Amino acid sequence: MRSNKLGWILLAPTLLILFFFGVLPFVYVVFVSFHQWNPFAASPEMIFNGADNFRRIVFDSAFLNSLGVTVAFVLFAVISEVIIGYMLAQAFMREFPGKAFFRTIHTLPLIMAPIIVGSVWKLMTTPSIGIIPHYLDKWFGISMNIGTSAPAAFFTIVVMDIWHWTPLVTLTLIAALVSLPRDPFEQAQIDGANKRQIFWHITLPMIAPALIATVFIRLMDALRTVDEVWMLTGGGPGSSTRFLGVHIFKEVFPKTNYGYGSTISVIVLYLTIVVCWLLYVSMLAPRNNRKG
Amino acid sequence: MNYALKVGVSALALSIASTAAYADDAFWKKAAEPYQDVTLHGVTESTPPSNYIREVLAPQFEELTGIRVDIETTSWDQMYDKAIKDMEVGTGIYDMVFIEQDIVYSYLSRNFLTDTTKLLADNPSLKAPTYSEDNFTTFADYFRGENGDLYGVPMEAFIKIYLYRTDLFNDPEIKEAFKAETGRELKPAKTHEEYGEIARFFTKWGKDHDMDLWGTTAQAHTGHPASFYEYFESIAPTYGVYNWGIDADNNYAATVEHGGKMNSPEAKKALKWWLSMRDIAPPESNASTWTEVGTTFGAGRVAQGLVYGENAGWIAADESKSLVVGKVGVALPPLEDGILEEVENGKGYIGYYDGGAFGIPSPSKNKEAAMLFLQYIGQDEVQPDWAVAAPRVTNKATYDDPKVQEMNKELGGYYDLLRDKGYLFAGAPAYPFHAQVREAVSPILYEILTGDLDPDTGLDQMAAKAEAELTDLGYRK
Amino acid sequence: MKKRNPILTTLFWILISLLTLFPIYWLFVISVKPAVQLFSTPDLILNNPYWGNYTEVLGNRLVRSYMINSLIISSGNALLCTVLGFFTCYALSRFDFKGKESIFFWTITNRMAPPAVFLLPLFLLMTQVYRIGEFTLLDTRIGMILVYCTFNLPFAIWTLRPTIDGIPKELDEAAYVDGASPWKVISEIVFPLCRPGLAVTLILTWVFAWNEYLLAATLTNFDARTLTTGLSEYVTTTGTEWGIMATISVFTLIPALIVFGLVQKHIVAGLTFGAVKG
User: Fold this and answer.
1) Chains in contact with C via at least 3 Cβ–Cβ pairs below 8 Å
2) ipTM more than 0.85?
3) Which homologous superfamily is A67-245+268-291 in?
């Protein structure tokens, strides 16, 4: 093994950048989270209030509701994206006419900015004059109003997210699948393994690192979704699509509630880390042990 | 006629710019001499009047004085956030900020703004001969501090008015049908009852004739503060509930129990009436902010509605955006009995007088140069062209300009109404906690709008929530 | 694998493609409709396109400067993150540190932060702390390139790690035995083998940076404003300029398409790479 010095040199720029732009701001947010601070309160300065904000959050029904809808959204969206994305990636592993063309088309949604995606879907789903509600009503007699129906708004966002981000999953999984060695698959086929066995025992373990990386990225991006939802529903109807990202946004932007907003952010970040860490350890650790 | 937003992107505007030449060139050149190296930075909401500043007035000013002006235009929520961060931290990025009428009290309470009256008094050489605070309409008074000094130069002002379709209201067949059904002549409503009658009539008319036509607008978004504003600033006052039903002189009480009016019987009546109108408004109303209300009206989907004055301009006259050009009339909003007398006697208001000003943030390092620019855009001389490009009036003299008079006709008499009846309208209440209470209370209003809460319970909860928030913020003791 | 009916396969892909393309098609439809038609009854088929929005956007000097800023920021950021991500993953894969798995996991936590609340500290740091005299990082392209690292660098590290871990250590060990320098091993042995993974990383970090809105909206004012922040100029109280917004959006797609087209080849190259290895 070569000296670890070289290793540290290679790591240093990354650690420095993340320290100055990730850790320091985080330290500041943690600091603020122990304060009562709203620049437009009767006393606009920062007032230390210990763990009051953290006590308050436990009983904050608005926050808990936001947490609930966010979890539901993340589950629906990410699970669908991973399943559809994997199936499409497998389909792209075969040869068929026009494959490169279709693959290019399939990656197009990715290149659209979330704020643009939100705008287009808003125009497509505006009650009665958007193209989707219009034809749903005309062809099937279904009335869809994202301004009144919470499920309609929620699932519009889920579908929008699936449309937007499945290509990311497909793309990273294609990259993972193409670099798999062929021997184990050929061997398994010779041994008479069926498709399901091959998937569970060979494909899945081999693409697990890439799959987990992708799931993580989608998971945390879905958890902090703001732009699309902001454009599409603004969190409504009611609070039915007021996801954590939107909730925090409303707390710190219009409400300028920097103190409590920081507390919510710290808690959300903490929860995200815990969930991801558990996933990471439970999914990756056994594999490493087996290997090592 | 094609107004307003086109200014933002057309080079045509610049050709208007270069034609302006004033007798006082000498003053500007001399006053600007010490600031030749200065570049002024301003942030504003992207509105037609702001775009006019960026595309026309700023280049004009630069040509005249040699002082460069960069204006950043951005969306409503971004504009607030950026201005507040700059002033809170004291960075001094901006030399001018847009002050929406409803946020001025928050800014004043934090001493974010420079006293322009005092700045000019202290630096007599800066004072432009063509600038005077007396030129402004009474709207400027919203930007005065407790000492009576001016903290912002008004740049846009509108009232939210009752807009109706003259073509429909004058259609003989419709008039006859309306009379047959109600026994009344069809004319713009004076009371809520009349308004509701007309609204129901037209919604039914649209249905019977298989037209995309409804009887009223409703700015009833279920996730955006636009609905909060429509209810508290346009509907509740016409029932006699002013200042959001919060009594500032009585320890900021909001509940009836403590002396407020947010959940008073009048407020509840107002909300129920508004909901009943929302129910017969076009289906998109539940996802409508002020933007979509304007587009709904401009697309010819409604017969009448309450519409922000800044949209009335393009609805009435811009053929590239509106299908109802020349078919629009303006009137005062419908009222409960006795409200008009009450307001005439100086208590309360009947609707929203909205707009904004340009102010100089305290941390600015170029206050003097910024003051020159503010005076420049506050002169009577630049107003008429500005008003034509982006319908707004902030100076008294502007009303009499022939170009503006011409436009007044196109807008169905909107400017006359603004001048003669403007005093019946009022800006947002003088609360430094405007956005804070709005955001606290709005989610409950959204639930009422989606039907998850009945209006009575909902308003009770809103009043209680407002008091809780005010206690949290330290205003309510 | 069983033979599949080629017509059915093609039909399947056409259907999927139509679903994928529809919102993009609709974006285009919005961009070629005059405002007055946007809120009337929608029509699936496009007739009489109106190009007014395009002439307006093309004639707008600000949009051009936003476009240049966006290109510089996202390309700079994507390159920086891909290179640093590659170094980091190589270090994590080939060297033994105490707690290297913790470092690896920690990097990703930087992407988890809900952005809204981090804007204030970033604003403070960039205006008050990271400054040399009058020069601050606020409203600069380099500032945005660095800020975007907070979400793109973790992404790069996480997508590159499996790729680099998948390259047999024996390959670089053999090179070291032959007397190659570490730099030579990295650039001539590991780097070429990682090309598909690097291509995917580059493309996706580029896209994330190109599309970012909230950070750019707060941390740029005049000089470094990006295309996405330019879009918010058309959301106004007097009506969102959907046509112009859609037109700018169409313009944001073009560079993204070009970048995608360029890098896609390398993903395809990955196919041969897999074969060789197998």
Assistant:
1) A, B
2) yes
3) MetI-like (1.10.3720.10)
